[in-house]
Amino acid sequence: PYIKQEMEAAGGLQAVYIEGNHVDYIAGSVYNMYTKKLFLKTNHFSFYGIGYKQPNFYPDIQNHWAKNEIEFAVSRNLWAEESMFYPENGITYGEFIHALEGLTKTTLDYQLLCRGNSLEKPVTREEMAVIMSDYVKITGINLATTRMEPNFLDISLASSYAKEAIQWFQAVGVVNGKDGNQFDPTGIVTRAEACNLLCHYIE
Length: 203
Fold this sequence. Notes:
- The protein is of the alpha+beta class.
- Helices cover 31% and strands 13% of the residues.
């Protein structure tokens, strides 16, 4: 276990890969404050350590429910804002796919993941599920089923093409619904919700 220092933001803790004098920060790693362990996925044995990057200070996230997850994203340069983060603003296709690229250092086909949508279009929650489903298939990552819950109660409101992705999303435990076991498929994904998703996806 790693005991986080008082002045450290949990979201700024990252695994580092050490080779000689070279240190590489691994964006696809996450520190769990409850287990006090740092998790990462790797395909080879090597020397790893725990590094720290101080997240930018944003006044508008200091009392936000997703503060840790937002700091996770900004310390990995998945988003870069100058003075305010605007956590309740919607996220666009371009911003979300860019963050996915930065998370796993993978070059993605924006046109494929957009499915004909503009990069400037805000992403809905059902579209987020479809993007993530496509992304997992492209990157070859296997996610184990962790939940055996009933479908979201408003699954009937989702577009037919998105229902399977939403059900998968729920089964692997990457995303939580809203109050009353609602998914809100047509709701716009906020920047805070996107950060929360990416953090828990790695976890």
